[in-house]
Structures are given as structure tokens and as C-alpha cells.
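Give me C-alpha cells for this 152-residue protein.
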Amino acid sequence: MPATSATTTGPKTSRPVRKQAAPRARNGPRGGRKREFTTRRGLLIAAFMAPAAIFVAVFTYYPMIAGSQMAFRHWDLNDLTDTSWVGLDNFRRVFSDPNWGTVLGNTGAWVIGSIVPQLVIGFALALWLRLKGVFIAVRWLTWGFVLAQVWA
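Here you go.
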């Protein structure tokens, strides 16, 4: 058997001996070299994440904190300059109100009456669009867009 680049014959035998391939570095996803984490890379990651973090902080965390603080203050819509701290007094007033059960029932009915139909209609439309195929869905959305533009 002729020797190839992948095989050689052993010194005392005529059997071919396979050369072993050089071991691959297994640090990266495909055996490539894994990049080191440097300060520069960390700053680059932080720079890309900063706008999203600021957006979340301004539009999520600030309203939550401000709303939580408002729950413990006295608010008079005729005089918004005087918002004195009342602590848990607002909560005591709400829970001791005789209409509390009616308000809770109305809120529950409103939530169930608004969310359940949305859920049912959404699932029905999704199932209908899945059965009709993507072409029908695109045609329906395009027609809806055209009608919205005509009536706008």
C-alpha cells in the first residue's frame, strides 16, 4: 500500500500508521481561540448596553418608585403643591370603605370582561390565519392597511 501524507509505514511493520492530527483548541465555539475579557471590551459592552439601561430606568423604574411614593402622600387635585406625607392612612381609608367589596367586584368583572374576549379573539384569529396560510394573512393585513389609509 503506498504511503500518503496521512499515513506512513511503521519502522518494523508494513502496516500503515495514521498520523494524529494536531489537537484543536477547544476554548471557542468552533474550536477557535477564545477572546480574553479586557477592560476595553467591558467598556464597549457597557456602552452598547447603556441606552437600553437608561430607557428601562426612565420608563420603568422611575414611574414605579414615583407611584409607590405617591401612595403614601395626601393628594388634593385643587392644590398639587401641598402633598404631605400620610403614611399608611390612604390604605386604611381604602380598605375600611364600605364600598370596597363593590369596587373590587367591579374591577374584577372589568378585567375578566376585557381580557377574556381579547384572548379568545386573538387565538381565533391566529388559528384562522394559520389555517388559511401566510398568503391570506399578508393579503388581509395589506387590505386592512389600505382601508386604514383611506379612512384616515
